[in-house]
Each structure stands twice: as structure tokens, then as C-alpha cells.
């Protein structure tokens, strides 16, 4: 790795440029999740069906977009591993921003009928496709630029800006709902958060145009030392293991950070504004543990910290949910519960990006870690709202969110135990 002032400046530019695309991506996903009940009424409320059916259809559109993320990870990952991180990240940023902004222009069901949910779903698919090419490139960029002994911290910035995006999405929706009447929010207010993605994308584009290509990619292009066959055979196994390691992160992350407002409203009959406030608190808990966890993983390794977080989620998921459900629980108590839950997810999200980056050689890193992450998210994040809401409707059991987190925690604990204690000490070029 280069040293000196130029390298230091490149490190900072890589952090900022890599982070801002993730911020926009997760801002949009948060907005959609937090506006799920409003979107359900505008696009998926069918005559003669219960409101929860519309919510399930809304989450179905949410899940479909996630299933196009792996395709995006393959298409743009291969591009990023061939032509570079910088040009590929610029391309996915532009397309992702345009797809997000376009959602704000879609007419509602009452205006154009069935074309409305179809158009919305199509844009969600495009957004998912381009977002699938974002994560692998951003994490590759940030960890490949990381100074020695700081890969966990640099990778943690990716997750930290995810938290900021989720918080921004929740904050914007909460602000809109506070200053607008419910009728105005349903009529046009929901569109504003999607429109805001356009100026955000403009700033992100400027930053990415001014960043450098990563040193690891430049060295790999010069030497081309890794045989393609060896990389391909090793990649498939690494992706499968990676999905297992990420499973609880994906499931708990969306359960506690995104779909919780809709769960509180539809299952526990919590008011819209109070549900959003609780969601903001859970995301604050998520945010405050990410960077410390990333830094700590550089000292003690990824395995110890991530296994501890997964075990705590397994043990505490049901008790925390029971407290949340209790009629005697005050807003302060509920806020503390979701703050703890969010903090445990942050303990996984801090070391997670570096852990993934260390699983793949430079030649296939963009593709490999992007595909592992997007597949895990497609199955266990994108389907979280659909699975939880659907099972609650069928069984009437309000403990389903906890059981979902617990089941994924068991698998992840086993997969995380296969990590080597010294993975954080290796060079990414090895």
C-alpha cells in the first residue's frame, strides 16, 4: 500500500465516495419500508380485501426487487472485476438514482388502475438490479484502500452509512407525517422522499468522479496472478458460506430496522408517528455500535465479535419482543428494547463488510462478496416483511418476528464459527 499524503487523501476519498452510494440505496429502501402502509393504500388496496392483504402485496413488491439484486451483483460485479471499481460504481449510482426518483412520479391505482402497481414493481426491480451492483463495489473500494490494521473500521463505514440512510429515510418520513395531514401524506406527501434521491445522487456522482481506482485492482491488473479456474471454483463455496454468515444480520436487520413500524401498526395497533419514532430509535442503536465494532474486530478478529452478536440475538429476540408487546410497556421502555436490538445488529454490521472482503481474492472480490451479500439479503431481508406478515396473518402468532430472527441466528452461529482467528491480519492480495 502506498504511503504519504497522496495515499491518505485517496483513503478519505474512497471512504466518502463508497459510502454515499450506500447511503442513497438504503435511504430509498427505508423510505419504502416506512411508507409501506401508505403505499399499500395507494397501490395495493384491493376491493373486498383486508388492509393486511394490501400490506402483504406491498412487501411482495419489496421482495421482488431484492431478488434482482443477485443478478445485479453478477452483471456489475463481473464488470467491476474486469474494468475497475470506479467506472462501475459510477454507472450503478446513476441508474439507481434515476430508478428511485422515478418512483415518485408513478400514478396511483385510483388513477390508472392495475398499471400503477405494475409500474411501481417494475421500478423496484430496476432499483434492486442496480443496487445489486453497489455493495460489492463499495466494500471492495473501501477495504482495498484501507491502511494496515484498519480494514474492519473502513468496511464498517459502509454499514454506518447504511444506518445513516435508514435514519434519514425514517427522519424524512416522520417529518413529512408531522407537518402534513394524513390525507395530504396519502395524496402527495409520500412522493417527496423519493424525489429527494435526485439531488443526493448528483452529489454522489461528483464525489465518485473524483476518486481513484483501488491499489489492489491496479496491482491485480498488472500481474493477473490468480488463475481464473481456481478463483471460480473457490468462489462458489465462499459465497455459500458467506450467505450463512450473513443470514442473521440480514434477517434481524430488516426485522428490527425496517419492517418494525409496519409490525407495530398492523399487529400491535401502535400509532403511525409513535411507530416511526421507535424505528428511529432502533436505527440509532444500530448506528452507534457499527464503527466501534469494526474497530474492535481489527484488534480481536471478526469471529469472536460476530459470534457473540449472533448468540445474543438468539437468546434475546423473544424476551425483547415480549416486552415490546406488553401493554404496560411505556414508550421509553419500547425505545430501549429496540435500541438494544438495533445495537446487536450493528455488532454484526461493523465487522461484516471486512469479513466478506477477506473471503475473496481481488480478481473476483467485487462479484463474490456482492453476490453473497445480495443473495442473503434477497432471501432473508427482502422476504422478511412478506414472511413475517404472512405468517402472522395465517397463525395469529405475534411472536413470529422473534422466531424468524432466532432461526437464522442458529445457522449463522455455525457458519461464523468456521472463520479463522487471524483472517483480519492477512493482506487482501494474498
Describe, in short, the structure shown:
The protein is mostly helical. It is 80% helix and 0% strand. The chain has helices at residues 5-34, 36-44, 51-67, 69-83, 85-103, 109-112, 115-131, 134-144, 151-179, 182-187, 192-195, 197-209, 215-223, 228-257, 260-266, 272-300, 302-325, 331-349, 352-357, 365-380, 384-395, 400-416.
Explain what the structure shows:
With 430 residues, the chain is mostly helical. It has one domain: Up-down Bundle (Growth Hormone, Chain: A), CATH 1.20.1250. Helices cover 80% and strands 0% of the residues. It is built from 22 helices and no strands. The protein has helices at residues 5-34, 36-44, 51-67, 69-83, 85-103, 109-112, 115-131, 134-144, 151-179, 182-187, 192-195, 197-209, 215-223, 228-257, 260-266, 272-300, 302-325, 331-349, 352-357, 365-380, 384-395, 400-416. The model is unreliable at 1-6 and 225-230 (pLDDT under 50).
